[in-house]
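[SOLVED] Need 3D model of a two-part complex

Original post:
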Amino acid sequence: MLTVKDLRVSVDEQPILNGLNLEVGEGEVHAIMGPNGSGKSSFAHVLAGREGYTVTGGEVRFDDQDLLDLSVEERARKGLFLALQYPVELPGVSNLVFLRESLNAIRAARGEPALDAATFMKVVRDKAGQVNMSPELLKRSVNAGFSGGEKKRNEILQLALLEPRLAILDETDSGLDIDALRVVADGVNVLRSPQRAFILVTHYQRLLDYVEPDYVHVLSGGRIVRSGDKSLALELERRGYGWIAGEAAA
Amino acid sequence: MNAMLEPVERYRRLIDAVAPSLPGDDAGWLTSQRARATEHFVRQGFPTRKDEAWRYTSLERVLEQVWAPNAEPGLQPATADIAAFHLAKDAVARLVFINGRCLPGLSSLSGLPAGVQLGSLHSALEQQPERLAPWLGQAAQAGVSSFTALNTALIDDGAWVHIAVGTKLAGPVELLYLTTGPGTVAAHPRNLVVLEDGAEATVVEHYASLDDTACFTNSLTEVLLGAGAQLEHARLQDESAAARHISNVFVQQGHSSHYRAVGVSVGGLWSRSEYHNRMQQTQASCEIDGLYIAGDAQLTDVHLDIGHAVPACTSRERFKGILLGRGRAVFDGRIRVEVDAQKTDAQLANDNLMLSRDAEVDTKPQLEIFADDVKCSHGTTVGQLEPEQLFYLRSRGIGADDARRMLCLGFATEVLQACSVDGFRARVETRLQQRLAAGAVMGNSGE
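Solution:
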């Protein structure tokens, strides 16, 4: 589904990804771990099409299309979703309007008709219930004044609503208490399917106690320096990142 | 030689010519008020850019044309034509003015409760001028600018609203001011809104055009609020692209009265709104929210003069601007806290969203504080759409233009939700979306 070949990216002429390779197949859950500054979040943002990153080499194919050639919204409409580490506040933009416009834009791209108001309300209420989100938050401005946990729930609600083919969660687990972490994990687990893939970008192994990854990769110095199964995450938890960086340099 | 002398002379002749036909000419107080205003107007002349409050606005284009007051409309619109202009869904009464003249046939005044007087100022001045004597001109004399004086010299028609002690209106009163050709048209509507002690009402003023005729509107609304009275005052200037518009609102507030206003300016080539509030008794409060949208060739101009003269009054002014293309805006907001006005709580904010590099805004908030125990603040911002916000929306599949539209609407929401009039907000949002769609190319250049 996703093939990343020798991806090289810089920000302000400063290289941050230096030949990253990754293959993600349908139904797989990949965890990308790594120390701060290793390029994890940058990788997630480059996939989503965030401005400010210059691709200097390599390619990214998503379902046989050149992903890097698509605009941000086109990527989303093709089924790519990025849950942000710091979800953006949109004062004055109603969460319901935001969710409805998003869903209908994605549905239109899939050739599905827009949902009428009543059907949409039913769908969004159901999904909000699944992620334990208070219906009150649907009426408020997007993320404005939400707690950290509420913002993350709102991201998972969007994930559940938009049903992407590839979901990238950028440190969605950071700063969450155990209940919110469970909501995120349950959200991912419920949505796991043979057609859908996940990339979980995370600093800590904690999330992986709840979401069992098929693959774990360690990113360091802008490249994936080691890949393995979930036991690699446990080893990282025990030994830290230092030994891998040392090995990679050796 | 004063370059503005010639237009002044022209207007003086106009005043002389129409004076005999103005209503209430047998009421001494009114004729002397008009005469004083004329004299003041002639002496003062029109402002020039040397006047601080007019620094960014040239009047030459407005004044070079001859504007005919109360011109007969070429076509008499039908009730069905008017329906498209209705804003308030639950209006209890409507008054319709064409080229400054009230048209009873298009208005609906039936079913008003006891204690409510509503109708044409012209009729009221003809039938019972003494009834209006205690109020007409009371609030407006506080600041006699040229246009205020001109309006007073020409007092003819407008809305007359009187709500008796303790009376509460169930829905909004809607006042619709339309202009139509042929030829150039001037209207000087004069509105008088009086809420006696404890009265409550909502008044909507809506200025619009039936066609693209070049028109000049010089409207003046006086609001007098008794003790504990509450007025919500929603105003929309949505005139044609050929319109010139100036409106002055003068508010005089009694003890514990509350004045809540939402003023929106969308249309017009040049549009200036002034609010002059005088809180004259303690515990009065006012909230004025505003939104202005200006695109190519448009200049919109907001002036606030909020006067705290007595202790323990509260004022909140919050204006937002959306500038497109080569649009220009001026915001000049002043709060004056006089020496006796201890415990004043006043806040003034002006935020501008620039959707194009070519747009321009001049913003000048001013606090003049002569009391020492007060809580006052002001702040202004001039900014663009946040790239993070655009990215967030687009990353959810929403197209770039739609994302911009949603963020602009969001920017306006804070102001619009301050208005409780059902139908007002939807109309403004529609207008804003139309303007954004028309200026979509400009929006792109703003990135």
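Edit: Residues 441-447 of chain B have pLDDT under 50 and may be disordered.
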